[in-house]
Design goal:
Elements (H helix, E strand, L loop, with lengths): L12 H8 L44 H19 L21 H4 L1 E9 L4 E10 L12 E8 L8 E2 L10 E9 L3 H6 L1 E8 L7 E9 L9 E6 L8 H6 L2 E12 L4 E10 L12 E8 L8 E2 L10 E9 L9 E8 L7 E9 L5 H11 L5 E8 L9
Antiparallel strand pairs: 1-2, 1-8, 2-5, 3-4, 3-6, 6-7, 9-10, 9-16, 10-13, 11-12, 11-14, 14-15
C-alpha cells in the first residue's frame, strides 16, 4: 500500500487498540504464599543459587522484606546441608495441626491446690486455692466457676464434694478446704482423686471446663503436697467398671470380743458421705447388723434413725453371745438404709466382715480375733451390692 507524502497512514481500529492499550504480555500476580515457601516433610530446601548466576529482579516487582528475612534465617541451615553429605530433615518444619487445638491445656487454665492425707484420723484434706486463666464459657467473656471432687473408681454422688461458686471471673480464688472422711491406706493405694472445674449456669446444664487427676499413692502420710496443674479435657470413664464399683459412702465399725461375757461387741460409730436418697438431697439413715449364718433369726440389731443427714453419728453397740471358736465360721453383715414413711425403706449400702471377706474387711476381722478384749475401729466402704439376700 502506497502513501502520498504528507498523509498519515490509515490504521485500523484493531491495530489502534493493540498499540495504545496493550502494555505487553500480562505478568502473573504473585501470591502471598510465594513469599513463604514450604517444603514437604523430610525434603530438604533447594540449594542456594550462586549470586553470579542469579537472574536480575523483574521490573515493577519490589522484593518484600519478609522474604529477605526468611532467606537470612535459612542460610545457616543451607550452609550446613551443603557441607554434609545428606542433611537431616527438620522435625519442626511444619507444626502439627492437632497440637494447635484451641482447647489445649493453656486455654483451659491452671488450678492451684494442695492435698494432705491425715493417716491417724483417716481423712483426706483437699484445699482448693485458686485457678488462673480459665476458658470463658459465658457470653460476657467470663465464667461462674466452681470445683468438684470425685474419688475414682467408684465415683458417685456419695463421694462428690464441691466448692462454692464464684461469679464473673476467669481467675477465681476459693481458699476452701474439702475433706473426705474414712479414707484408708487401701484407698490411698488404689484410688485417684478427680478434680473438675465447671461453669455454673442457672437456666441450663452446668458446663465442664477442665479437670486434673491425682493418684493418691503419690501422697505421703501426714505430708502436705502442693500442686499447680494445667487443666485437661474430660477423660473417658469406664461406665461398666463404675457401675460395679459404685460407692454409697463410708461407715466406721468397731469390733471387740469380750472374754468375760463370751460375746462379740459390734459398735456402729458413724457414717460419712452417704448417698442421698430423698428429694431434698439428704437421707434419713439407720444401720442394721446381722451375724450369719443365723438359724434362729435372732441376730438382727438396728440403730436409731438420724434425720436429714449424710454424715450421721450413731455411737451404738450391740452384743452377740457367741463362743470365741465359732467366730471363724461367722460373717457380720452391716447394711445402711434410708427410712421412709408410708413406703419401703431404701437400701443405701452394705459391707460384710468375716473369714470370707478380703482386704480391709478381712484384716479387721482377723485383728479382732487376735486381740481379745481390745476394741478395733476401722472405716469401711459401703457398696451398692446388698450383702447376702437381705430384705428390710
Amino acid at each position: 500500500m502506497t502513501h502520498r507524502r504528507g498523509e498519515k497512514p490509515a490504521i485500523s481500529i484493531q491495530e489502534h487498540m493493540a498499540i495504545d492499550v496493550s502494555p505487553g504480555p500480562i505478568q502473573p500476580i504473585r501470591q502471598i504464599s510465594d513469599y513463604f515457601p514450604r517444603y514437604p516433610r523430610g525434603v530438604p530446601p533447594p540449594a542456594p543459587v550462586p549470586a553470579a548466576a542469579a537472574a536480575p529482579p523483574q521490573v515493577g516487582h519490589a522484593r518484600p522484606l519478609c522474604s529477605a528475612a526468611a532467606e537470612s534465617e535459612e542460610k545457616p541451615e543451607r550452609a550446613g546441608a551443603a557441607a554434609g553429605a545428606s542433611p537431616s530433615p527438620r522435625r519442626d518444619e511444619e507444626p502439627d495441626v492437632e497440637g494447635d487445638d484451641s482447647d489445649d491445656s493453656t486455654t483451659l487454665g491452671t488450678l492451684d491446690f494442695s492435698l494432705l492425707y491425715d493417716q491417724e484420723n483417716n481423712a483426706l484434706h483437699c484445699t482448693i486455692n485458686k485457678a488462673k486463666g480459665l476458658k470463658p464459657m459465658d457470653y460476657n467473656g467470663l465464667s461462674d466457676p466452681y470445683v468438684k471432687l470425685h474419688l475414682l473408681p467408684g465415683a458417685s454422688k456419695a463421694n462428690k464434694l464441691r466448692t462454692k461458686t464464684l461469679h464473673n471471673t476467669l481467675n477465681p480464688v476459693w481458699s476452701e478446704t474439702l475433706t473426705y472422711y474414712g479414707i484408708t491406706d487401701e484407698d490411698m493405694v488404689r484410688k485417684t482423686l478427680r478434680i473438675s472445674v465447671c461453669d455454673e449456669d442457672k437456666f441450663r446444664h452446668n458446663e465442664f471446663i477442665g479437670e486434673t487427676r491425682i493418684p493418691l499413692k503419690k501422697l505421703k502420710p501426714n505430708q502436705l503436697k502442693n500442686f499447680n496443674n494445667c487443666l485437661e479435657k474430660q477423660l473417658p470413664v469406664n461406665k461398666t467398671e463404675e457401675k460395679s464399683l459404685e460407692e454409697r459412702g463410708r461407715i466406721m465399725i468397731s469390733l471387740k470380743y469380750n472374754t468375760q461375757k463370751s460375746c462379740l461387741v459390734v459398735g456402729i460409730i458413724r457414717c460419712a458421705h452417704l448417698a442421698a436418697m430423698d428429694a431434698n438431697g439428704f437421707s434419713d439413715p439407720y444401720v442394721k447388723t446381722y451375724l450369719k449364718p443365723d438359724e434362729n433369726k435372732k441376730s438382727k440389731h438396728k440403730t436409731a434413725v438420724k434425720k436429714k443427714t449424710l454424715n450421721p453419728e450413731f455411737n451404738e453397740e450391740f452384743c452377740y453371745d457367741i463362743k470365741y471358736a465359732d467366730l471363724t465360721k461367722k460373717t457380720l453383715e452391716v447394711t445402711v438404709w434410708d427410712y421412709d414413711i408410708g413406703k419401703s425403706n431404701d437400701f443405701i449400702g452394705g459391707v460384710s466382715l468375716g473369714i470370707n471377706a478380703n482386704g480391709e474387711r478381712l484384716k479387721h476381722w482377723f485383728d479382732c480375733l487376735k486381740n481379745k478384749d481390745k476394741k478395733i475401729e476401722r472405716w469401711h466402704t459401703l457398696t451398692n451390692e446388698l450383702p447376702g439376700s437381705l430384705n428390710d
